[in-house]
Structures are given as C-alpha cells and as structure tokens.
Amino acid sequence: MSDSEDSGWCTIESDPGNYCATCTELLGVFTELIRELGAKGFQVEELYGLDEVFVADLEPIYGFIFLFKWDATLESKSKKQATSPVETPPIFFAQQTVQNACATQAILSILLNVPATASVELGPDLLNFREFTQELTPEMRGESIGANEIMRRVHNGFARPELAMVESKKKGSQGKQEDPFHFVSFLPIGDTLYEFDGLKSAPISHGSCGDAWIGAALKAISEKIDGIQSAGSGEIRFNLMAVIKDRASLYREKIDQQIRLICQLEDSLRLTPASDSNDPRQHQIQALFAQNADLEERLEEEQLKMSQQQRENARRRHNFVPLAVALLKEMAKTGELAKFTNK
User: Fold this and answer.
1) DSSP assignment, residue 42?
2) Checking DSSP bridges between strand 61-69 and strand 238-245, what pairing results, if any?
3) DSSP string, 75-90
4) Within 10 Å of residue 343's Cβ, how many Cβ atoms?
5) Which of 37, 78, 145, 243 is the most core-located residue (most Cβ within 10 A)?
6) End-to-end CA gap in the chain
7) DSSP class of residue 121?
8) Nearest to 58 by CA among 71, 44, 70, 69
9) Which residues of this protein are annotated with the site description Important for enzyme activity (predicted)?
10) Using only C-alpha atoms, what is the Rg of the chain?
11) What is the pLDDT of residues 36-88, one digit of tens each?
C-alpha cells in the first residue's frame, strides 16, 4: 500500500485523481522502471474500459495492474480468500513488508511469473533474484525485495524529488493522512487466474480460466470495483493498466516478417513469371506493402511516444526546488517578491 511514511522506499505518486489528466506519465514511469530493472520487451498501457474490445490491440498481455483506494473494512469482508496454490508451474508471490513498495511489487508479480515461452527477457538481475528467493516464504521474499538495493534504487529514482523531501519532513508527524491507494496484479498461472495482493498471505485464486484468462480477469476487476462502489463510498478513482509486449519491438518483428514474405513472393515471380495481371502473388505483394506502411506509421508513433515519456521521466526526476528558491531570493533582492506577497 502507498503510504506517506517509508522505510527507505519513497512514494511513487499513486492517487488516480492526481494524475488522471496525465496518465501517460505513469505509464512511462512503469515502462521505464521495468527497463531499468533489466527486463526487455515489456511495455505498460492503460485500459479505458473493462470490455475485451479495449484489449484486442494490446495482446500479447502478460498481466493487469489495478489501482484502487484501499479500505480495510471492505478487504476484511471480501469473499475471495488467499489460498496457497499448488506451485505447478512455480509461482513467485511475495508479501509486501515494505511501505511504499506496492507499485514495484505489483510489477514484479507479473515479470517474475511470465512463462518461459514468452518472447521477452527478464535480465540477469531479476533472474538471479527469482532463483535466490525460489525456496523462501512469501514473507521472506517481501523482505528480500525491501533489502534489494537495485530494486530500491530504481523505484526511488521515479519518486519526485520534491515529494521525497516533503515525506522526509513529514515522517513521524501527525499531519492529515492521505487516502491510501494500492496496486494489485491479475495474471494467469497455468490454467488458473490469480490476483496478487502483497497485503495477503498468498495469491487469490479466481478459478480455472484456460486461454480465456483476459476475460476472466476483466470480470474479476469489474466485480472488485462493484464491491467498492456498492459500499456507498461513491469512489470513482480507479486505474487499470496492462503489461504487454513492447509495441515497437512487436511492430519491427511484424515488418521483418512481411519483408521476408515479400522477398519470397518476388523470388517466386522471377522463377515463374505471372501469366497475367491477376496473378494472386502480385496482389499479395501489394497487400503486404500496404500493411507494412501501416506498421511503419505505428512504429513511428510508438517511437515518438517513447521519446516523450523519456523526456517526462527526466523532468519528473529533476529537482526544481533549488531553482525556485534561487529565483525567490533574487526576486526578494530586487523587490519584486514584495509585489506578490503584499497583495
């Protein structure tokens, strides 16, 4: 759960009401956080609805991250209870033992459970961590996450410097408590859909789903939202994200496949020339060129989006407080500050 106090882990802004106008910022944060953990081939995208039509263009999907306002009373009444699954295949589940780590922990729950058949790379750091913690209890895995310097450094690198300063001053104070928001993950393990919540003792099984896990996950999330809203809180702040295959890599792979097909068809035409203009091979080549043009356009859009996210992350990480203080001091020297303070 995201909290104002920390144990070496800073808060990554998590109130949907605070960033709803700039959701791209959080998506960029999570995508780059994954890359800085050493994983390759992943991307995080937001979902704007709970119908499967909203995920059609996002597959392959490795898991969902759901953000909501946490309520202890509602959680205690939840009918879905944590169950210790039969670990076949092996399941990585860690309890959250460190404040403010829930965002990174929700991401790790997906990354460290991605099937070996997926065309992505975890990188040596995550692979070594998964192997090291394989025989540990969920609680000890949570402690291992908290003690992992690489994970803590990457996580803290995305906390706004000015917010980290405020948190440091607030630590131990009795100021107004902010609404606690929490991240959980939904993903398939084998034929079963699980909900990974670090505040539970084990994953929550949502039953057998087979290949239809995406629809089952969206239904489970919808039921979770209904449960929160039916409590009469009027809560509307939710956010749903999908961890998917990196779109730029996916488009490049498709473009390369299309080019190989075009070359094969052109070689075929050279060996066996078309008897007339209606040769289906010529129509196939034209269709493939048209598809490639569309893929090239999508790739360009993704590259532009990635550049924008990287610039936003750099801005987010820069501490503007010293600059603001210096400007205020200079305004005070010239008498300009008094014009504003005396109004």
Assistant:
1) E
2) antiparallel
3) HHH-S--B-----SS-
4) 5
5) 243
6) 42
7) B
8) 44
9) 197
10) 24
11) 999 999 999 999 888 888 898 899 999 999 998 877 666 655 656 666 655 55
| H or E element, residue 254 | helix 247-271
> Of 102, 155, 206, 209, which is the active-site residue?
102
Query: How does 186-204 read in b/e, with b if 16+ C-beta sit within 10 Å?
Result: bbbbbebbbbbbbebebbb
CA–CA separation, 1 and 102 (whole Å): 5
Name residues whose C-beta falls within 8 Å of residue 206's C-beta, 6 or more positions apart in sequence: 80, 186, 192, 193, 194, 195, 216, 217, 220
CA distance 170 to 12: 16
Give the neighbor-by-neighbor strand order of the sheet with 204-208: 42-46, 238-245, 61-69, 181-189, 192-196, 204-208
Closest CA to 219 of 186, 191, 182: 186
With a CB cutoff of 8 Å and minimum separation 6, the contacts of 312 are 24, 25, 28
Active site residue 102: yes
Q: Are 17 and 130 in contact (CB under 8 A)?
A: no
Query: Distance of CA 238 to CAs 4, 18, 168, 217, 228, Å?
Result: 20, 11, 27, 15, 10
pTM: 0.81
The ranges assigned to domains in the chain are 16-245, 248-317
| Tokens standing for residue 217 | 């996950």
Task: With CA atoms as reference, report the closest residue to 19 among 130, 213, 158.
Answer: 158
Query: Tokens 């392959």 identify what position?
Result: 60
Q: Which of 10, 182, 206, 209 is catalytic?
A: 182
- Cα gap 138→144, rounded to integer Å: 10
Q: Residue 36: its pLDDT value, please?
A: 95
